[in-house]
Each structure stands twice: as C-alpha cells, then as structure tokens.
Amino acid sequence: MTHTPSRQLVPVLAAVWLAILSAGCQTVTSEPRASAAPPSPAPVLVAQTEPAPAPVAVAAPAAAAKVSAVDQQEAIHAAFAQRMAAVRKGLDELGSPELATEPYVKKLTIAGTNGRETAFPKLMQTLADRVKIEDYLLVALRDARVLYRQYGLASAQERDHLLAMNDAMNTELGILGDELAQQVKQLSAALDSDHDLPLFKHFAENKAVFVTAMHDKLQTAAELPDLDAYFDRWTALVKTRMLADRYQVINLAYYANAFHWNDQRNLLLTQVADMTTSPFLKDLGHEDVNAVNMATMLNASFGNLVQTAYPLPAKGEAPPAGSFVVSLEPDHGLGGVYYYSDSPEGLRNPTRVTRADGSYYFAERVTFVLKATRDCSFIMRHIDAKGAVTQICPNAYAPTANHLVANQPLTIPGDGMPFEFAASEPPGIEAIRVIVSPRSIPMNPRIDTAQMSFQQAMSDELAMSGDHDLIASHPSTTRGNTRGLLLQPRLDPTTAGSYDHAYFDAQASGNAVIAETFIRVLPLRH
User: Fold this and answer.
1) Radius of gyration of the chain (CA)
2) What angle do the packed helices 102-110 and 112-148 form, to 10 degrees?
3) pLDDT at position 17
4) What whole-number distance in Å separates Cα of residue 78 and Cα of residue 8?
C-alpha cells in the first residue's frame, strides 16, 4: 500500500534534496586511486530485495501513535537521503579526472611500445574501478527506490529538485557517442594491418552505435510523472554507462590479441568472463586466437552483457508478424569442448581423420542444429583455430542445402550431406557464422567456393554491412555485394543482444541477420 507524506515533512524533503544537489555542485578533490572504490553503504532501514512490510500496529494512546508514525516517516526520509547522497557521490567520482579513460587510450595508441606497456594496466584498472562504482550506484538506486515506495509521490516542491538531479545524471554520465567513436578511431589507427583493421572497425563500431543509441534514447529534459519513473530512467542510464565501460574492456581484449599480448589479453578475458559468467573465456591459456574467432567470442560476451542490462523477449516468445528468430547451436552447446586423440578410446562419437602426410588421428564428430521460425535461406561458414575458412553451404558439394523450413530443425551435417565435421588439429577456438535472409540465396559459383581466404569471407560481410566509409577505405578486402544482401543494424536490445539466437526485425532496414556460435577443440590427455 502506498503512503503519501504528511504535510509537516515537505520542508524536510525539500531540505534533503537541496543538500544532495548542493553536495554535487562542490568541487571534487583529487584523491589517491583508492578513492575510486564505491562509497561506504549508508544504513538501510528496509530489506534490499523487497519493500519493507507495513509498520506493525502497537496498542498505545492515539497521540503517541501519531508521533511514532511521524518519527518513522522521518527515519525513512533520512535513510532515503543517505542513499541519494551516495548516488550523488558516485556520479561525482565517475566524472572525476582520476577515472577518465581518454588519457590512457591516447597514450596506448600513440606512445609506442613503452607507452602501451605502461598505459594498458592503468586503463584496465580505471575501467575496473568505474564498473565497481557503477555497480554500487545500481544497488544504491535500488535501495533508495525501496525506501521511496514507503512514502509515495514527490511533492510539487520536490519535483524541481528531481529535475535538477536528472540534469546531474545527464552531465555526470556524459554523452557517450563522441567518446566511444573517438576511442574506436584511436584504436583503429594503431591497428595498421589490413587483416585486423577492417574487422576491428566493423566489430567495434556496431557496438558503439548501439550503446550510443540506447544512451541517446534516455536523454530527456521532460518532467516524469513520479519518482518511480525517475528511478527507471536513472537505473537505465547507469546500466548503459556500465555497458559502455564493459564494452571498452571487450575492445581492449581484441586490441591486445591483435598485438599478440597474450598475458594482457588473458587478464582482460578473465575480466570479461567475470562480467558475463562465461568460464570458457578463462580456458584459452596462451593459445593463438585469430581475429575472427576472437571477435566471435567477444560478440557472445557483448550479447550476454546486453541481455543482462535490458529486458529482452524470452527465447521461446513468438516474434511480431513478419519478424522471425533463427538459432544456431552445437550439439555440445555454446563454447562446448570437442576432443581429438591418437586413439579413439575416451572419445564421444569418434571418426578417423587423415592428415596430409597420410597419417591419421581420431576426433569427435561435431554437429550443429539450425532453426528458424519462418522459411528462409542461409550461408554457413566455419573458421578454424588458424583462421582458415570453409563455406559449408551453399557450395559445389551442397548447392541446394541452404534452405530452412519454418520451425523444422536442420542438423548440419545431416543425413545425405556428403561431408562430416570433426574436431581437428590444431587446438583452439572454432567459429560458425550463418548469414540468414528471408530472400532466396542461390549458389554463386564465383564466390561460393568450399575453401576461401579469411579476407574473402570478411569482404562479403563488410559488403553486406552497408558501411560505405569502411568499404571505400579498404577496397582490397571488398569483392562487392553481388548477392544483394544487407545486414540489419543492431540498434535495440533485442537485436544487439542477439548472438546464437538472431532476431530479424521486419520493420528494420536490411534483409539479413547473422547468427554465430563457437566451440573449443582440445587434445584428449589420456
């Protein structure tokens, strides 16, 4: 039941908000790095996960009961003020020079090897500190909301202070678009090989555009109907800012991998794994991971972060008319492990694989299940641990095997397909990418070859991306979009959170989407 504040409490609330906002306007004093830790939690008078129960009635004279109720309301307001003051302090810390990432990114990308070695750990620590504060802000906002719900709507006088706090949220959380675009530009400038640069720009820019779009949607000066609505907006803003900082960690992991800084890369992958509860990212050790397979793992991580930050439709939920969902799953699951060995002993569903020199080994068979909620066509490609690309279908061996019937799972390879998959040497990450369209995709003998170079596969996807600036700046990697396919942009949580379950939006531009997955291939130790 919602309680409205008593009249005598309005001046108290106004003073509370004035104190919070005045504290936010004070100059932030530079402190040692330890100051980046979250502010100490203020005592909370209610459970953090549920609204507090209604006060228990006590048999007492009417006057005493009235005083007790007022005292209780004042205690709630005081706890609420403490929580909102903690939010204000956290915002100030996020906006402080000590937690700015731009100086480290600049040094990382233009100061040569020495600059990179010194800037990289500082940038990693700064991002980790920012995420800790953002995580604490979410807790503080949640607790303040629980307290607020015990006394009801804000008064007219408080609304002015709410709008001022709203402005503070906009200012301190910053405008993300320019910041993220500048970071991608700086990191791209340091990746000077044609092999890494186009893929990194495509990988990074798509995510920056989505995060910026989500942030921009939350920018408003309009007055919201009540404090509950403000809490919705503030929580979404902090989640989007946290997603932006975690996105930067993902970018840095890609960047470290491109420069073969395996130690730094593995530290960053551990951070990403902790953020996304993806333990497989910690298992890479010092294996060489190519750019495509690194990108596909980090795409999975970003999709997981989006799913955590925003409410999404359930996987089994039917999409709107004209839209559809396509899913891609290995028989051992996303990131599943498949083994090979000199002996079939201990292997699941083994097959014999012959090497180029005539020798052989045994490996576990691999199958994938592809399913869509409407009829469609697809292009499926496999990228092994060294970056070699095989187009599974369509190709000369399976020219018409690339059609899906609505809600009918297709196992690949299945009965009648003239090939099989097996866990192959060398060990590492192997990716599967499927480009899906409601349009027919007939085999093109000129480009649909079973074997193709990494550059050729990337060329097709870049051409389908519609990124004309990127295509124009790297013509050597682009063969042209001869299929007439255009990938849909990922500008909302449903599409940006897609990974092995891709969402085709009938209302969006473009006529194709990508679903992807990956497996791990390891030698079996007897």
Assistant:
1) 27
2) 160
3) 43
4) 15
Q: How far is CA 187 from CA 201, 301, 437, in A?
A: 9, 20, 32
Which tens digits make up the pLDDT trace of 244-288?
A: 888 888 888 888 877 777 777 878 877 887 776 666 665 554 455
Backbone angles phi, psi at 250, to 5 degrees: -65, -45
Residues 6+ apart with CB under 8 A from 202: 461, 462, 465, 467, 470
What are the CA-CA distances from residue 395 to residues 144, 380, 459 (Å)? 59, 10, 18
The phi, psi pair for 9, rounded to 5°, reads -90, -10
| Residue 73 Cα to chain centre, angstroms | 41
Starting from the edge strand earliest in sequence, which strands make up the sheet with 324-330, in order?
410-412, 368-372, 324-330, 501-504
The Cβ of residue 282 has, within 10 Å, a number of other Cβ atoms equal to: 13
| 190: its two tokens | 């340091």
Whether the bond into 426 is cis, omega within 30 of 0: yes
Assess contact for 401 and 394: CB atoms under 8 A.
yes
Q: Which helix (H) or strand (E) holds 136?
A: helix 112-148
Amino acid at 279: P
For residues 364 and 283, give the distance between their C-alpha atoms in angstroms, rounded to a whole number.
Answer: 20
CA-CA distance, 463 to 181, in Å (whole number)?
21
- 59 burial type by CB count under 10 A (0-12 exposed, 13-18 middle, 19+ buried): exposed
- Return the half-sphere exposure (C-beta side, CA atoms, 13 A cut-off) of residue 475: 1
Task: Let me know: does 338 contact 520? Beta carbons within 8 Å.
Answer: yes
**3-class secondary-structure state, position 328:** strand
CB atoms within 10 A of CB 313: 14
Q: Is the pTM of this model over 0.85?
A: no
Confirm if 132 and 38 have CB atoms less than 8 A apart: yes
